[in-house]
Amino acid sequence: MITLLRLHHRRILVGTLFFGLAGFLQFHAVDDGVPLAFDFLITAIFMAIIAVLGFVGVALFPSFRVVMELGGIVFFITSVWQNTALSTLSRGVPEWLSTFSFFVLFAVLHHVLYGSWWQKSGLGVAVRLRSRFKTRSTPAQVWARLVPDPNNLEAYYSGTLRGFDPVPDAPEQYIQKIGLGSSAVLELHVEVTEFALHRRYAYNFHARTSARNRDFNKGTCEITLTDLGDDGTLVEIYEVNEKLAVGEALLMWFDHLGAQVSASARAVLEGSRDLTLLGKLRREVRALS
User: Fold this and answer.
1) Each residue of 56-100: pLDDT tens digit?
2) Which letter does DSSP use for residue 215 in this model?
3) How confident is the model at residue 283 (pLDDT cuts 50, 70, 90)?
4) Of 224, 177, 226, 230, which Cα lies nearest the Cα of 201?
5) How far is the C-alpha of 90 from the C-alpha of 200, rounded, in Å?
6) 55 burial class (0-12, 13-18, 19+ CB within 10 angstroms)?
7) For 5-28, what is each residue's pLDDT tens digit?
8) Separation of alpha carbons 142 and 69, rounded Å
9) pLDDT at res. 27
10) Would you give the end-to-end CA distance of the chain in angstroms?
11) Which DSSP symbol is given to 211?
12) From CA 218, how far away is CA 126, in angstroms rounded?
């Protein structure tokens, strides 16, 4: 429960904020003579209910998680429209059309924020992901799971590694193949820059893709292991993506991807259930393979 709340708190907070602002506009617009403080109280109760429902909804239906933030924003926009002078613009509009416009606005907002047009436009931002966690596993055990071994692909923690092939005549360079389900594979060109056994592993990467998308999905990654003796291992992962499509970067922020990586890797290393979005994605990939 605590893990799920930590992983999804950004989305829940943002969604709850917009639902709360929309709710306050609705409650305060009613001319019932109640004090302003009462409207704030009702809004606070409403926000608490939305937060609980949002958390349960995201936990049970992660594939529809964007409904939390997008639904809140759309609800806020419609509340502003209905409870300000803008409402005069929609007089005489049938109720069914008003309801339909809510879903249209949701679809438009989803496309604007998360649509593939960001990548087509070439607009991107740099993204830095930090993951830090402790595990009962020894440094040697962690290394065996987090660092790809060309001779033992099955040991890689994700279970989706399909290849880690050396590049001919290019020392410390590899083609890493990640399964996406069925026969689909994502290929990364990896250049290992540090390889201190059981201590540190670093590399540069870029996706092998079309010329149009060549500027996207490239960067560096560093994995540092600190031996804590009887307490296990401290794992630190720092990844820099030099350029990601804006919509993709925004979704990664809402998903709190750095924390997702920490929770997912620790769950795999310690043999517990992986409740993260990454764990869900890998289970889907394995089911299609």
Assistant:
1) 999 999 999 999 999 999 999 988 887 765 556 556 566 666 677
2) T
3) confident
4) 224
5) 62
6) buried
7) 889 999 999 999 999 999 998 887
8) 36
9) 84
10) 30
11) S
12) 10
- Residues 197 and 138 sit within 8 Å (Cβ to Cβ): no
Burial 88-97 (b: 16+ CB within 10 A, else e): eeeeeeeeee
Can you read off the two tokens belonging to residue 246?
A: 């804006």
Residue with tokens 């079309």: 210
Q: How many CB atoms lie within 10 A of CB 99?
A: 9
Tokens representing 275 are 């409740």
Q: Whole-structure pTM over 0.90, yes or no?
A: no
Structure tokens at 121: 């436009």
- Other CB atoms within 10 Å distance of the CB of residue 287: 8
Contact 197, 120 (CB under 8 A): no
C-alpha gyration radius of the chain: 23
Nearest Cα to Cα of residue 102 among 79, 68, 83, 85: 79
Q: What is the largest CA-CA distance in the chain?
A: 80
Residue 266's Cβ-count burial label (10 Å; 0-12, 13-18, 19+) is buried
Predicted confidence at residue 260, as pLDDT, reads 94
Distance CA 269, CA 255 (A): 22
DSSP one-letter code for 288? H
How far is it, in rounded angstroms, from Cα 289 to Cα 255?
A: 25
Tokens of 220: 């560096």
